[in-house]
Amino acid sequence: MIDFRFNWFTCLWITWVIVGIVIQIVALLRNAPHDTLSEHVWWLMSRRPFWVWVIGGFLAWLLVHWLSRGRWG
Fold this sequence. Notes:
Elements: H1 8-30, H2 37-47, H3 49-67
Helix pairs in contact: 2-3
């Protein structure tokens, strides 16, 4: 069992997630091109094929890391 303690890092992570959600909601409500996170990722991936591998590799690692609860990555 992981010993979880609520500390200032927890507050920072919660703040980071909330800010990200607010930015995404504002981008969706504006309905302007090139505002959402997806549009930025797609733009980055279209500029350099290298970033397709970097982003894809990161997401694959993150999935394994979360599903294995940190045992495999």
